[in-house]
Specification:
The chain has 2 domains: 130 residues, Rossmann fold, CATH 3.40.50; 89 residues, Orthogonal Bundle (Arc Repressor Mutant, subunit A). The protein is built from 8 helices and 13 strands. Helix 6 crosses helix 8. The longest helix has 16 residues. It is globular and about 50 Å long. The two termini are 17 Å apart.
Length: 233
């Protein structure tokens, strides 16, 4: 999952970023409204973690502007995506503040201080809802993926894999059979400041095929990779 973290406190931001990266997420950090909006109009994000008290204004202005952005038409992809899930992370813990944030379009609201594991659980719930899933486990053929535990089981046996390979597998499963190019996978896997080896995605795909079977992840030559939609995912 690629996450935009909007937080002006460097200590909080670094701690959150490290925790999220340990769970395999790509995290881009912005400390102002202006830089957050630039990020949202430049890259696609799976979720936004939004502080409200920012140096150049109130974070709710980002939320309102995002929700009022034009919705995509047809198959066209537009940035920013007004449907991007947003979790407000703020020291404002009053009932009125929570109601206002949710009514302005936030998908969830967490008051500081909060537990990092709770934040992870709320992120997983957002992804489930966005995918239209109720089951916390993802089933595909004879494989079961558990996002909460970061585990993959094939015919009941645990499959060991690197965090990056696991992230690619999850992205392809959530794509519902769509073909994703290497660039699209890289955009989901890496933040702005990450260094990317030219064949990194191909290497991880190769390792996944060795562990799961060659037919689990297929290639559309010259286009990208996909998992056939011939089983419930």
């Amino acid at each position: 999952m690629r996450i935009l973290l909007v937080e002006d406190d460097a200590g909080i931001a670094e701690g959150l970023k490290a925790n999220l990266q340990q769970r395999g997420h790509a995290v881009d950090w912005c400390s102002t409204i202006a830089s957050a909006w630039t990020a949202l109009t430049t890259e696609g994000f799976d979720a936004v973690l939004l502080d409200l008290g920012l140096p150049d204004g109130d974070g709710t202005s980002v939320l309102q502007r995002l929700r009022n952005a034009p919705a995509p038409t047809g198959l066209a992809k537009t940035l920013p995506d007004p449907a991007t899930p947003v979790i407000i992370l703020t020291a404002r813990d009053g009932v009125h503040d929570r109601i206002e944030g949710l009514d302005l379009g936030a998908d969830d609201y967490l008051s500081k201080p909060f537990d990092a594991q709770e934040l992870q659980a709320r992120l997983r719930a957002l992804v489930r809802r966005a995918a239209g899933r109720a089951n916390p486990l993802i089933h595909y053929r004879d494989m079961v993926l558990d996002p909460a535990q970061h585990q993959v089981r094939l015919q009941g046996a645990l499959v060991e894999m690197s965090p990056r390979a696991y992230a690619i597998l999850l992205i392809l499963l959530q794509a519902h059979g769509r073909v994703l190019s290497r660039q699209q996978l890289e955009e989901k896997l890496y933040s702005f400041d990450a260094s990317i080896e030219s064949n990194a995605v191909e290497v991880h795909i190769h390792h996944l095929r060795k562990k799961l079977g060659a037919d689990y992840i297929q290639t559309m030559r010259g286009v990208g990779y996909f998992m056939p939609q011939d089983a419930g995912a």
